[in-house]
Write a structure and sequence with these properties.
Layout: E1 7-12, H1 15-26, E2 31-35, E3 41-45, E4 51-56, E5 69-71, H2 79-89, E6 92-95, E7 103-106, E8 112-115
Parallel strand pairs: 1-4, 5-8
Antiparallel strand pairs: 2-3, 3-4, 6-7, 7-8
Length: 120
Amino acid sequence: MTSRLVAVVVDCTDADALARFWAAALGHHSIRAWDDDHGTTYAQIDDAVPLLLFQPVGEPRTGKNRLHLDVAPQPGGTQRGEVRRLTALGATVLDEAPGLPWIVMADPEGNEFCVLPAED
């Protein structure tokens, strides 16, 4: 038997705000908050596959992400247009290295992700 991927979990300070950013970034609409037995409130994007779960933690992120998401514009969109849209949602551009096809960005809590070029 093998394992199956159930969720991608993102540690964050404000689970609700980060879930709203990523739901808007990815075009999802179903955000649900729930509490664990210790009173910690999580937020998840129910209609994302895999599920995206935002877990509040007390300490800030330090250092480079060990895992990141890659996103690309929908058909008919452009990489530059997607970067502008994500910036308007609260992301920031971190790096546009010459010769590399991706643009490195950070979500509102500083988690890095890449915007790839549109597929042909």
